[in-house]
């Protein structure tokens, strides 16, 4: 599937996560965990993993997340908690969950002035994202990606080589094997 290439590529190719930056990744399925791998390889100093299933936090931390938040365990919106934790918001947010609520939280937890939000997930029945123009006029940006910005014919061989050279550990993403 495209889970690894999409999440990893979203962090590396689309968001262009920088060394020392702060990141928030919403949704810890295969795409979100792959985004965490990308943020870590890019050199992010802090990676906040967000999911409504706390059982996913152990794997997220093993792959590079520094903090984990379950919005259902919080007494205020997760974007407010992230903004407080980071003294103003993260440099990069990646929404791998889909759905208007997660997309809005991802955008709103980015820092004013240069925060970047990359939308990756899409809920099938979702009605879309409604945003305040102020969020964009204050310097935040939104972008999206399909397949993580890779060109399949050129990029897949490079990703395979990087895996074989142990640049990243895809084995951690395998949950079970079918015959």
Automatic annotation (TrEMBL):
Keywords: Cytoplasm, Metal-binding, NAD, Oxidoreductase, Zinc. Its cofactor is Zn(2+). GO terms for cellular component: cytosol. The keyword Nucleotide-binding does not apply. SUPFAM superfamilies: NAD(P)-binding Rossmann-fold domains (SSF51735). GO terms for biological process: formaldehyde catabolic process. It is found in: Cytoplasm. Pfam families: ADH_zinc_N. Transmembrane segments: none annotated. One of its GO terms (molecular function) is S-(hydroxymethyl)glutathione dehydrogenase [NAD(P)+] activity. Residues 30-156 form the Alcohol dehydrogenase-like C-terminal domain. InterPro entries: ADH-like_C, NAD(P)-bd_dom_sf. Its main location: cytoplasm. PANTHER family: ALCOHOL DEHYDROGENASE, ALL-TRANS-RETINOL DEHYDROGENASE [NAD(+)] ADH4. This is Alcohol dehydrogenase 4. It comes from Rhinolophus macrotis (Big-eared horseshoe bat).
